[in-house]
Amino acid sequence: MVFPTETVYGLGAVFNDENALLKIFAVKGRPSDNPLIVHIWDVKQLSSLVSQVSSKAECLTKAFWPGPLTIIFPKRSLVSGVVTAGLDTVAVRMPSHPVAQALLRLTDVPVAAPSANLSGRPSPTKGSHVVEDLFGKVEYIIDAGPCPAGIESTVIKLEPDPVILRPGSVTKEMLEQALGERVAVANPDNQEHPQAPGMKYRHYAPQAPALLFEGDPEKVVAEINHRLDQGKSSERIVVISSSEHLTRYRNEWVLDLGPLESPEVAASRLYDLLRFCDQLAASQILIEGVKPQGVGLAVANRLRKAAGGCIVRVS
Ligand code: TXA
Ligand code: MG
Fold first, then answer.
1. Element (H, E) at 53
2. Given this model, what pLDDT does residue 233 score?
């Protein structure tokens, strides 16, 4: 069953039903070495999943649950290796979306749920995205409109030291303030030893090749215009731009990622825009980078993934 959360839509199965879990992997085309996040509605459910809740973990659950933060815990042996992809840890989060909360409360059993997209496609932030990817392949889809945050939860591991494995709407700054210590961010480009197994796959990707331009905003505008001038008229190039620069591009298709100083807006629009590029049958997507601060760090991370590492640094 597909349900909305405050981050993206999830495809859920009861955490200890191995047949249903295997179906999730099959329906998404997801590699079996990529573990799932388990969703709960009440902290009392933690004891059925994890062998220990450290004081740091408790501090974070108090500060950020319910909300878009996933915490890695040592798992109890009864948690299936299908959920954890054979790891001895389990990822748990408590969503704040009222529909997700109601569903989890009614089920009253933890629910494992990856994002409800086909593997490799941008995560679904609207019911229509889920229909595009999974219609006819799942029993139920609950459509509750757009997901407010629009990017997947922050994933943090705490042992031996706090490291953000996947940046999200709960920012490094917020986590450092709650924990009272420095929090590192795993290098997403480390393909050899990815921290969250899911981060090694080319994720969040539109069909057309995307090129990401990072650096001084004025120079980025100039460089993108330079590329547009070189492009052939038969190509359908789509620019993803900040609101401020929308009118600066010499191009037919310019999509609005939101104001430069509002990465939250960019987060909420990003996946919808990438899917729209596919509908336009874009031949190439040129994307303005965002400042990697606050939620901007998470947006920058997803943009890099969408570009599959094709990044132009202008300075
Ligand atoms: O916002 C979200 O987290 C959404 C909604 C539906 O809750 N879910 C989601 O799930 O994004 P998924 O499966 O698309 O991404 C789960 C991420 C993957 O990068 C996976 O590798 C990582 O969490 N993960 C899961 N269990 C882990 C573990 N034990 N250790 C390290 N990383 C883990
Ligand atoms: Mg996913």
1. none
2. 77
Q: Is 187 annotated as a binding residue?
A: no
Chain Cα centroid distance, residue 188: 13
Give me the residue label for tokens 């054979």.
Answer: 86
CA atoms within 13 A on the CB side of 30: 26
Q: Is 39 annotated as a binding residue?
A: yes
Q: Provide the ipTM.
A: 0.99
Mutation probe of ligand 1 site: the residue of 7, 25, 32, 37 with most atoms within 8 A of C-beta = 37
Q: Is 245 annotated as a binding residue?
A: no
End-to-end CA distance of the chain: 47
Q: How many Cβ atoms sit within 10 Å of the Cβ of residue 115?
A: 30
Q: Which domains does the chain have, with CATH numbers?
A: 2-185 (3.90.870.10), 210-314 (3.40.50.11030)
Cα(201) to ligand 2 centroid in Å equals 10
Ligand 1 atom nearest to CA at 113 = 6
Q: Evaluate if pTM is beyond 0.90.
A: yes
